User: Fold this.
Amino acid sequence: MTTTLPAYDDVVARYEPVIGLETHVELGTNTKMFCACPTDFGGEPNTRVCPVCLGLPGSLPVANSAAIEATIRIGLALNCSIASWCRFARKNYFYPDMPKNFQISQYDEPLCVDGYLDVEVNGELVRIGIERVHLEEDTGKTLHVGGSGRIHGATESLVDYNRAGIPLVEIVTKPVDGTGALAPEVARAYVTELRDVIRSLGVSDVRMEEGSLRCDVNTSLHPAGSTEWGTRTETKNVNSLRAVERAVRSEMLRQAMVLDSGGRIVQETRHFHEDTGDTTPGRSKETATDYRYFPEPDLVPLAPDPAWVAELKAALPELPRLHRRRLQQEWGISDHDMQSVLNAGAVELIEATVAAGASPAAARKWWLGELSRRANESGGELADVGVTPAQVAELQGLVDAGKLNDKLARVVLEGVVAGEGTPTEIMTNRNLEVVSDTGALTTAVDEAIAANPDIAEKVRSGKVAAAGALVGAVMKTTRGQADAKTVRELVLARLGVS
Assistant:
């Protein structure tokens, strides 16, 4: 069997990909799904547990109404139908992070079904069908000590049950076919849009780095023109938007290599490796019968009141895609410019900066320019550069008032990032305000002319462009605090050039 990966363009010319995404969202409720234990992230291991989430004999679960409401709101935002009657089930399997040896989930009767989410890829709208949105409890967290951090080769394994029982919403797409070479980008766009939708609902912080949003990526290939889909693999717990795209692309290349060699794709779970972008085998994929589902006997069925569901639907916020389109029109920018804002993750930051008083153009300039550069250099998120939208608006206000020029504003920005105070405080404390005293500027101009008689003569003779050197000399004398336009006007006036 060949071990050489084919070229991506060659793969999509000969094969059609089918993808599917199973996304798990930890809800931001105050307490767990079936008990009163707190849900906040962090804390010493096994300190946020009780008999219910530890599965001790005799303990009984009680469903969290806030989690049920949040799940219905997610389903409505994804255009799903809400079940008039459904119930929980026991999903049976043994693994150390499941203290009961079963998970309370939903099986054949989910809370939300048959929805869709529209995403934009390369300017085109792609509709992703939603199979189901159901509610369950999260598992604990297993830490494999020694070796590579995985169970194979570990010297010991530790289990933290703080996360066990936290409300978890699983959102399962229908198979997505027909996307061809764009399949990896469609997968990333879907998870990105889904994250934005859930964040807009305020039901989860959807932080992938903390595990409150996790994605399993299903991928299969079949020969172009064939109506029979190939065997899928499931890449588990992909934890970044970039990794979602890379996982799909990696599996497409790997599966094509196997098929080209006459091999057979095995239905299995796989692990994605961020450092290499490759996937490796996990375990063979179970079927529903392996889990021996049966109705949860300790919980009553759910029967959401249709009037209540209608109230929840009427109270949904503006969906992110529509919100972005409205902002684009208000800001008067092109599709290309809006895509740049999206790629930088700056929509909310720019919107807040505009709300604080800056113009859309100025807000975009700061967040997509100097602040994006700083975020890229640090490898962090744009929202974590150490500057708030209100501070950016205040800084731009000082520029608009003529108290700062762009160069001085960047110096003030450094002070804000360093925690020295507000832009106004830093400008005052460092004495950075633009010199507007015409008398002082005239003196500096006269000194520059006297020190550069040859340049002054060129300007007098009609070579006005040479005045830039004199302006530069004045700016140097004033430590960049003079207004360059005013200085230029003074230079030309002193030299008798109109």
In short: The chain has 17 helices and 15 strands. The CA atoms of residues 395 and 401 lie 10 Å apart. Residues 241-260 form the longest helix (20 residues). Residues 318-429 form one domain.
